[in-house]
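Re: [help] complex structure
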Amino acid sequence: MKKRLTFLSVISVLVLLFLAACGNDSESTSENGGESDGGTDETQSGSGEEVELRFSIWDSNQESGLRQIANEFEEQNPGIKINIEVNGWGDYWTALEAGATGGSLPDVFWMHSNEIYRYASNEMLLDLNDRIQSSDVVEMDKFPEGLKSIYNFEGTQYAIPKDYDTIGLWYNKTMFDEANVSYPDDTWTWDDLYDAAKQLTKDDGSQYGILTPLHNQEGYYNFVYQNGGTIITDDKVSGYDDPKTIEALEFYVNFVLEGLSPQEFGDGERVTHLQNGLVAMGFFGSWNLTGFTENEYMAENFDVAVLPASNDGGRASIFNGLGNAIAHNTDHPDEAWKWVEYLSSEEGQTRQAELGVAISAYEGAADAWVNSNDTYDIGVFIDMVDYAQIRPYSNTTAVWEDRAYERLNGAFTNDKTVEEAAKDAAAVMNESLSQE
Amino acid sequence: MFNYSISKRKPTKRQVNEWFWGWFFIAPTIVGLIILNLIPIIQTMYLSFFRTGAFGRGNVFIGFDNYVRLFNDAQVWRATANTLLYTGLVIPISISISLVIAVLLNEKIFARTTYRTIYFIPMIAAPAAVTMVWKWLYNREFGLLNYLMDWLGLGRVDWINNPNVALISIVIIGIWSIIGYNVVLMLAGLQEIPKDYYEASVIDGAGPVSKFFHITIPLLSPTLFFITVTTIIQSMQVFDFIYMMIDVASPAYDNTVSLVYLFYNNSFKYGERGYGSAIVMLLLAIIMIITVLQMKAQKKWVNYR
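Output below.
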């Protein structure tokens, strides 16, 4: 009898443990997603309405500025708390996709042209049309048309532009002075760039004139569009085999082949070449501003200019902008909208610009951004908007961008000609595009 | 006797009790294995027959299409070759080095506990952090290794991006980080070997070398076998070193990408879970074949006392 009792009790403990484990398992998705939600549910029933919003971003450079904006927002909206979560670019999308699959997306998060199609077409994002309509402070007319349309899928606005960015030519003034070369300006063409790179390169390998890495947005895309080439046509066909594209790539890769630029394939390594004084010129986007300003060596020695024009006078700078989106299944759509509404309002956009977080997309806010920084001549980033080119994208951008990289790298190591590499890239890109 | 005859018909209370406690004690492991290993394996196998939609929606059954694609995908075969080459280099080299170190550390040498600790440190460091440090050592422009090469007058090597060198660089990290684990297991094995054997062999006139080959190796063979099986499986799944060091844009990508890296890219970067699952099933099959072969071969060289 006694034995039977122990037996039964052990069994029941086991069953309980097992059930508890199962319970945890099924709950864990919502728990990950809404750790804060669980807390708020309790406080909601208890003391009042403290709502915590998860706000997910990928650029740690912007965190402190956004934190400040969030603090101001929290003061104006007691009861809403913003938790900023930062993940690096690569991990951000992996985590976001896992969150979307498991039903635990952050409440508010950044969107990008590369990924918007997947999220919008699968209805992972909250439809903002009605909310924009009824809002007093969000005026969509004030945002550039090209940016708005990135986040508009089949007539529904899924995200509101947050900022935009262009690519500039960063140069080391000290090295230019040493080599007695005049600083780059808006009269520069490809020939000037080439001559300067040549004069700035030292024979002993201690200094290269320029950095032309295997990088699309902050690299050869700019040259392709300056030369009248394209990466993707309006009919969604690869432009890598366009003769103009190949010509631009040849000019770009040539810097590496002639030893005027180090070979570089890593993403993070590019900046270190600038900051260690290995290269005299490099192409970097406006979003690097905070990091570049904080770096003492760069603040002392560097400045930025517009990108040179092609020899025919063709100008271009790759232009892109992020959007703020809300999860389709957020527990707090109204509070989340309030936050996005604030970020998209004239006030929020101006604050973002003043704090130097990024170039606000709102009409007229860009001037505040220019004034936020006196280390560099950052007005050039705004000047380039006139002829800026939206970063090429389609439904599976992330896939064909990688595939193209895999084919192009051989040109930089001189294992194949640029033309061969470009044609290979076009072939794999078209293969990937055909499956869209 | 009495009990025994009854148990033929019906288990006694005592036996039921024993069975219960037996199951009770292995339950945590079994439940863990089922939830964390068995179910995911079955799900992966299931998924490999689908073309997966984004966010786990809209999966379409496509039969063996993923496998057909797999067999025609040159990159998968390159990744298989890379993975096998990586394993083929890491295992013999790391085991030989660890064996020497373990035997030396088993002697009464000065500060041996300190050495043991030092050798084990790579094991407790996170692979991602370890790779970051190695990446700096390997850096072409500012790395310590190239600084030494310069100093020796040997010219710089592009450790990371040269397709012919990159896998070697990764193998070096792999060996470096696995040695500690091997050494600790081998030390445990070495201490099991009775001292009498060595004393007896000395009387018979054996030198250190023949002691090593005729006593140490045979008596250590069960440990060596265990280490070989587990580290081969571990090496076949190499991912973090390569992921952290070699970018998709790198010219060395094709020569270093491993099956798990390819699986990761397809499943998580390109959103093709089904195809990624098929790649992992291929890896599972390869590992199983290798392990079965090892189990068969052990009869030839492993001595269980």
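The CA atoms of residues 161 and 252 of chain B lie 5 Å apart.
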